[in-house]
Design goal:
Chain A has 23 helices and 23 strands. By secondary structure, chain A is α/β, with parallel strands linked by helices. Chain A folds into four domains: about 230 residues, 3-Layer(aba) Sandwich (Rossmann fold), CATH 3.40.50; about 70 residues, no CATH class; about 220 residues, Rossmann fold, CATH 3.40.50; about 80 residues, no CATH class. In chain A, helix 8 crosses helix 22 and helix 18 runs parallel beside helix 19. Chain A is globular, with a radius of gyration of 26 Å.
Chain lengths: ~675, ~325
């Protein structure tokens, strides 16, 4: 047995700030953890639980305004916060390295990629300039980027998001650190890119025996990457243990709630939300911090803080952990029956094409180069009465563009969009009659941007009621009350401003505003992607209920296949502006027929460890291949010469399921 | 990149050409002409006719424009009837003096402002920053004729270190002139340095809070390295425009400062030219000022291109 000290350990660490009233408010409150060499730990929890602050503390860093108020953080036995700055600089980047959340923001825009990697070597190794240059190229190669010599000369903005993240990884592993800190390392990346980055990190860590601490709101990422898990809630660790234990048999009620709120691709059940919201910083309840939201709460929970105590190989901070009974895994529950539809189409989309182009002054005089590629190209589908249709695809696939086209916010190059009674939707939003406007409503991704910050909720809801239904003043009041009840907000919210609401509550208001018009069709553009999973679960529930009870059809755009699977009856998959597969959601999610859908499905990270990587999930980066032919062929593992010649048609395998692939008829290997 | 630069230079040239047309025909639209302005109450009968004949004013406007513009291209702006000298001769020396003053004020004030702006930015809300920030607000609010007069009072009259006002003529050798540009330089720098300092300070604060600077610190790089390589280039970007405008403003000649110090620069000449209704001289000065603005704007754009790689590949 080796007796090396833990690579990193915290002892009753408390990090906080002093409020204006002069009170102490702790963001991280009494966290003790220890990590052995070569082990990876995932910190799970929702936004505001203190996981990022804790992660920075492991590097001896506290954000401006925060300070360590109690306890210690030790790297290989040396206390980080008592170390002189120069000594700390010697550890950072060399022994402890960080992969930031958003590499696009974390790379200095005015410095070339090569120079930014070189800096780490310059200050943490004795290598000469020539050796360093060679090492830089070697590192770029190690993170599996092509043409290192050329990439090293580029500036950060000349790289794609996934490439920037790889550069951040290269910078972090430049001098073989013993501890790698990952702050949401793949958030904001496409699922297939995310999977490749996670595999890369796993490989690099395994090769050199690096310990890792990974913060992520996505339990799927932690399940894929980490040996151990610590679940945080309101600044404290509520449960910790082996990943294949905690994520499969959670004991703490919060950990259980968190896991139940994650949509899962395999089951497709609408996830269960956690009631209530986390306590506010500086106004923590006296006893258990989860007591206010816990179904099993008793008097003891409100009076006494439960200590983190060992239980069955892990540790749990719950007074009644043993008495809660076995956890029922979400996929053991029956999948929610999705509303049956009567197959009456309410929306026809026929062969539409949309181009984004912003001609500049010189372009107008014919100096422009090649015509820009189409964002949407020849897309046709129908939407049936009362159904939810999911539109999925990577960024740039054109999924949001289709919504903009239907909403009349962007002109069509070709094609037609019509409502059931033949009303033309191909016209722009300014030219549509008021009644047509009423029937199609849009809910945006970010309610902070879509709700006017200077209007109260009452004023926000009053607009559609007055415009579409002529209801004003007292006439509108009962409708407003009903709408608030529909989205499960109290009537006291009516006089608040959006800034006084949480992210989930704001999105509820945005949904209420859309339903105030009594539309036939709701267009949802990534409506949950800015929200925590437990809040996302409640919004998904709300949307599914409202659409089902009112017979409203919904197009749900999301990058997250599992989210779409939870609520959609059918799923349409887009690649580079073209539909490549459309069919019943269970079939698309469980038995995809298009190679691209297979890759997407295989790259979805379920929140359970030990998943095998599906064959065909890790697809290569686009090798291109010129115009003409199937747009996916550059990444397709099944491409044949025919794919380069002709664009495959969207062929119906059965009345409900169609695929755009020359080899769709063949059995999948 | 090359295409971008050519585009910028081309559009500057087009602006300049349009401007020439505008300056000429704006004067053309004024009631009266050079001769009526020059002769004043005597502008009638034969004298007016002879004057117009001498000045070539009887030609059609387009022809006169062609003559004037082609002359302007080679530095010939005609003759000032009021001063009875070629315009280029009157303007030439004054322009040299203004450039000397503008250059010395820029070379003294801009680096100083950037330096203190950075110090204030990285020591935000510390005593150093408070002193610098409040001094710069003071310098911004005190009018230049007050600060200039105070400077003369202290350094010239009380201490006797340097001459207070310029006594040399406009065509004095540079060496003679330089000795008496010290106080005007300082007075000018006081006015514009405050703006640049505050601009640099706030952009340094923004950059210091950026994720990439946090990342650079977490890479364990020394602070001075981070400052030079990561903070400085990025925080100068927003300041470039302010610096460009300042230089353009200086090149136009600052009337108040020139008046207080009796400095023979363009600023006072332009006021005099307008007051005297000396039209050829006014046209020439307006053209010079505008060219100064266009050129400094062009240089500002090119400097931004140089410092900011994102602009270079903006359109692929």
């Amino acid at each position: 047995m080796e007796t090396r000290p833990d690579v990193i350990a915290t002892d009753d660490l408390q990090i906080g700030f002093v409020t204006r009233a002069g009170e102490q408010a702790a963001i991280v409150d009494g966290v003790s953890l220890a990590l052995r060499h070569g082990v990876s730990l995932g910190l799970a929890g929702e936004s505001g639980c203190g996981k990022s602050t804790l992660l920075l503390a492991l590097m001896g860093h506290a954000k401006a305004g925060l300070s360590v108020t109690r306890g210690a953080c030790r790297f290989e036995g040396r206390s980080l916060f008592e170390m002189p700055e120069a000594e700390l600089d010697g550890l950072r980047g060399k022994r402890i390295a960080m992969v930031p959340q958003n590499a696009g923001q974390a790379l200095t825009p005015t410095l070339r990629i090569g120079a930014q990697i070189d800096e780490v070597l310059r200050f943490h190794t004795d290598l000469g300039p020539a050796e360093r240059h060679e090492r830089v190229l070697d590192l770029i190669d190690r993170v599996q980027l092509p043409t290192p010599a050329e990439l090293a000369r580029r500036y950060p903005h000349e790289l794609l998001g996934g490439q920037q993240q790889r550069i951040a990884v290269a910078m972090a592993v430049a001098v073989d650190p013993v501890l790698l800190l990952l702050d949401e390392p793949t958030t904001g990346l496409d699922v297939t890119t995310q999977l490749r980055i996670l595999e890369l990190l796993r490989d690099l860590a395994d090769q050199s025996g690096t310990a890792m601490v990974c913060v992520s709101h996505d339990i799927g990422v932690i399940a894929r990457l980490c040996d151990e898990v610590a679940v945080m809630y309101a600044g404290r660790i509520v449960e910790t243990g082996r990943a294949d234990d905690v994520l499969v048999r959670p004991r703490h009620p919060y950990a259980r709630g968190l896991l139940a709120s994650i949509p899962r691709l395999k089951t497709g059940a609408v996830p269960e939300p956690i009631a209530g919201r986390p306590p506010t910083m500086g106004r923590m309840p006296q006893g258990c911090r989860f007591a206010l939201r816990c179904d099993h709460v008793r008097d003891l929970c409100r009076a006494e803080v439960p200590p983190l105590r060992p239980l069955a190989g892990g540790a749990v901070a719950c007074h009644f952990a043993e008495k809660l009974g076995p956890w029922q895994r979400p996929h053991d529950l029956a999948a929610t029956a999705l509303a049956a539809t009567d197959h009456q189409p309410v929306l026809w989309v026929e062969d539409i094409a949309i181009t984004y182009a912003r001609p500049g002054l010189f372009d107008r005089f014919g100096m422009a180069g090649a015509k820009p590629a189409r964002a949407v190209d020849g897309v046709s589908f129908t939407l049936e009465h009362g159904e939810v249709l999911g539109l999925v695809g990577e960024s740039g696939s054109g999924k949001s563009t289709i919504l903009r086209g239907i909403a009349g916010l962007w002109p069509l190059d070709q094609g037609a969009i019509a409502l059931a009674d033949g009303s033309d939707l191909a016209r722009s939003v300014d030219e549509r009659p008021r009644d047509v406007l009423r029937r199609v409503q849009l809910v945006f991704q970010n309610p902070d941007a879509s709700l006017n910050p200077r209007r109260t909720i009452r004023e926000i809801l009053a607009r559609p009621l007055a415009i579409y239904h002529g209801l004003t003043g007292q006439e509108a009041a009962p409708r407003m009350a009903a709408l608030m009840a529909d989205v499960r907000l109290g009537e006291d919210y009516l006089d608040r401003l959006p800034s006084q609401l949480s992210g989930g509550e704001k999105q509820r208001v945005a949904i209420a505003r859309a339903f105030a018009a009594e539309p036939e069709i709701i267009l949802c553009d990534e409506v949950t992607s800015a929200l925590d999973v437990s809040v996302q679960a409640s919004i998904l529930n709300l949307l599914a209920d409202l659409c089902a009870s009112r017979g409203v059809a919904c197009i749900m755009v999301s990058h997250d296949l599992a989210v779409v699977r939870a609520v959609a009856r059918r799923i349409a998959v887009l690649y580079r502006g073209r539909l490549c597969e459309i069919g019943p959601s269970a079939e698309v999610a469980l038995a995809p027929r298009h190679p691209y859908t297979r890759a997407l499905v295989g790259a979805v990270l379920e929140p359970e460890p030990g998943q095998a990587i599906e064959s065909g999930a890790v697809i290569v980066e686009d090798a291109g291949g010129g115009p003409g032919g199937c747009s996916f062929r550059g990444r397709c593992p099944r491409a044949i010469p025919l794919c380069a010649k002709t664009v495959p048609d969207l062929v119906a395998l059965d009345p409900a399921h169609a695929v755009r692939c020359h080899r769709a008829g063949e059995a999948l290997a | 990149m090359v295409r971008l630069i050519i585009q910028r230079i081309l559009s500057s040239a087009i602006t300049l050409a349009l401007l020439t047309v505008f300056v000429f025909f704006a004067v053309e639209l004024l009631p009266g002409d050079t001769c009526t302005a020059y002769l004043g109450r005597d502008a009638k009968g034969d004298r007016l006719e002879i004057c117009r004949e001498n000045m070539g004013l009887n030609d059609p406007a387009l022809k006169r424009f062609a003559t004037w513009a082609s002359g302007a291209l080679v530095g010939d702006f005609g003759v000032s009837p009021y001063r009875n000298k070629p315009v280029s001769e009157i303007v030439g020396w004054r322009m040299r003096n203004t450039i000397v003053l503008a250059l010395s004020a820029s070379l003294f004030g801009i680096p100083l402002a950037i330096f203190f702006g950075i110090i204030a930015g990285i020591r935000r809300d510390k005593p150093v920053d408070m002193v610098l920030s409040s001094t710069s607000i003071l310098a911004m609010t005190v009018p230049e004729f007050v600060s200039a007069t105070l400077l003369i009072l202290v350094f010239s009259i009380s201490l006797g270190w340097t001459s207070g006002v310029v006594t040399a003529p406009a065509d004095a050798p540079i060496g003679v002139l330089l000795g008496s540009t010290i106080l005007p330089t300082v007075a000018l720098a006081l006015v514009f340095a405050a703006h640049i300092l505050r601009m640099v300070r706030s952009s340094v604060i923004d950059v210091m809070e950026s994720e990439y600077v946090a990342m650079a610190r977490l890479k364990g790089l020394p602070f001075r390295w981070i400052l030079l390589r990561h903070v400085l280039p990025n925080s100068l970007l927003p300041a470039i425009n302010v610096i460009g405008l300042t230089v353009a403003w200086l090149l136009g000649g600052v009337v108040v400062i020139e008046s207080v110090f009796n400095f023979p620069g363009l600023g006072r000449l332009s006021v005099d030219a307008v007051a005297d209704r000396d039209l050829p001289l006014t046209q020439c000065i307006v053209l010079i000022l505008a060219t100064g603005y266009i050129v400094t704007n062009l240089l500002t754009d090119l400097a931004s291109l140089l410092l900011n790689p994102r602009l270079r590949t903006f359109r692929g």
